Structure prediction request, 504 residues.
Amino acid sequence: MLRRRAILPLSKGRSSAAPPAQFFASVRALIGARAFLTLLQLFSLPLLTRLLDMRDFALMALGMAVPLFANAFSDAGMGRSLVRRPHLGPAEWSSVFWFLFLTGAALAGLTAAAAPIFAKVMQEPDLVLVVLVLSSVPFLQSLMSAHQAALERAYRFDQISSVTVSAGIAGLLAAMALAVAGAGVWALVAQQVVTALLRAIGFAWFSAYQPHFAFSLPLLRPHLRFGKNTLLFSGVMTLQNQAPVLAFGPVFGTLAVSLWSMSERAARLSRTALAGPVSQVTLVSMSRQWREGAGAPEVAGLYLASTRLLATVLFPSVLVIALAGEAAFVWLLSDPWRPVATVFALAVPGLLTDALASSGARVFMVADRTDLRLRMAVERCAIGLLLFLAALPLGFEAAILTRSLFAVAYLPRYWAYIGRCIPLDRLAAARQLLLPVAAGAGGGLAFRTWMSPMIPGTALEALAVLATAAAATGLAALLSWRPLKADINRLRASAHKSAPAAVS
Prediction:
């Protein structure tokens, strides 16, 4: 039996029948939290890069490779399954929770057992202890999945945001304190563990349900079927994302791993601050619109709307920094990290494409076609990995560029897969990207050609680049204001469908 209080804010006078938060209220809460953490990381990263060696960042990137594979399986795909289902009973929640508990414990044990083997393969003895400590992260991730799903179903993204911010602040403070104390790579390790631990505690506290020792395999089976494909998909995507780290270390050394991991960190700031929140809330809205397939056209509209919103806000600024942001990287990270600018520029097309795919992933989930998503992921990973490995002998930069160009070239094929779930016009999806790309590319090239030679000093040039990035985003929004406004209204209205039944 699963006992649970209503999922509500910690304030009096609110009832479980309260209307759900609007789409953009939820998105604002998540974006506000992610934006705050992004700014906090931007302020802390210069300190960390000056207190820690480049090798520390390489060790952390390598050390997270095995736990990240375990993380891909820690949720078992069931968190998203809980969100998408229209009705769930107490025993069903309990069955999912305990299954995830056991899954997380097993993954933590396997990660710890793999630590000495992985360290030997990478020829880095220091990795043994790093991976052992980080093996706790998959277990904590498993623990928080059901609680987070409960909060999302109730549109309590404000509480998710509060927990995310608090945990992120604590993790960054721990990292900075240990870095100042000379702890080296352990500052970065502590950041991951502290953040995961506090998120697990916070989600459990706010979701406020207490699982009992009840387990029903028949109730678990629908989630296992859904989770099987989602689980395999996560594994394939983790392999795709971690391939550069695993390949660059043995072939080009720890410096290459450091440069790649830092460029990936820089891209992750923008992706997690915007793409993550939009797709997270879009999943709930799409689930309400789906109506057993009758709402497929509405879901297609939501997908196109979220694509335009993401592209307009994300693409122009990131492209400006990619094309003209060397001064910004030097100013923020210090001169030894200057080559990150080149790596970032080469990686950005692929990284932006991956960010754009986050809303598409929700379409497969809502349509219960995770089999299609898995087939697409295997196909993309296999072809992309072969091209990436073939480019390795050509050099570090050539391998990164090959990876990016393939991600862009695969987009039409990706939209074709989505079109099997919803009536999606691939040309309409492509048109959403043209203006944001043009604004970003034009702004970056103009700055690099005419403005950069006229600006004295690295700090002034860095600030000017960031201002140009913001201006490019504003220009893209202004030029597409009418369709963008219509998309915003569509996304806002999507949250007013009746909410899924709450767990009691």
